[in-house]
Design goal:
It is built from no helices and 9 strands.
C-alpha cells in the first residue's frame, strides 16, 4: 500500500495510448435519507495506471457534472445527489462517464433500492456494475 492506504500502482507517464480502457469503478455508495430527501455520496476508485477525470454521472434521470480528477490507484468520495428521493424505482440504470487524455469511457451500473411505505419513496441501497466500461 502507498501513502494514505492507496494501492501501489505503476504510473504511466509516457502519454502514449496503450489501448487499455482504464478501470474506474464505484466501490461504495453512501445514501443519507431524510424524510422525503436523499443525499448520495459515492466513492470512486481508479484501478488503472492512468490519470482520469470523472466527468459526469447520470443518476435518477439527471446528468450531474462532476469534473473530478482521479490519480492512478486513487479513490475519491464525491456527493453526486442532493434532492428528493425518487417516487419510483424506474431509475435502475446509472451511467458513469470518465476520460483520460486520449479517450472517453462509460460504465453502466444497476441501482438497487428499498421502498419506504411511510414516505412512499425509494431509497438507494447500492450499485452493481453491469459490465466492463466501454470506449465512447
Amino acid at each position: 500500500m502507498g501513502l494514505f492506504g492507496t494501492p501501489n500502482v505503476p504510473v504511466d507517464n509516457s502519454g502514449a495510448d496503450d489501448g487499455q480502457i482504464p478501470d474506474v469503478e464505484i466501490v461504495r455508495v453512501e445514501p443519507h435519507p431524510s424524510a422525503e430527501r436523499m443525499d448520495v455520496w459515492i466513492t470512486f476508485r481508479n484501478r488503472s495506471n492512468k490519470q482520469v477525470t470523472i466527468d459526469t454521472i447520470e443518476i435518477f434521470g439527471d446528468s450531474v457534472k462532476l469534473n473530478e480528477p482521479l490519480d492512478p490507484g486513487g479513490s475519491q468520495e464525491v456527493q453526486v445527489w442532493e434532492g428528493e428521493a425518487p417516487t419510483t424505482d424506474d431509475y435502475d440504470s446509472v451511467w458513469l462517464y470518465y476520460e483520460d487524455v486520449h479517450h472517453a469511457y462509460k460504465a453502466e451500473y444497476y441501482a438497487q433500492y428499498s421502498y419506504d411505505s411511510g414516505t412512499e419513496r425509494y431509497f438507494l441501497n447500492r450499485f452493481r456494475r453491469k459490465s466492463p466500461p466501454d470506449r465512447l
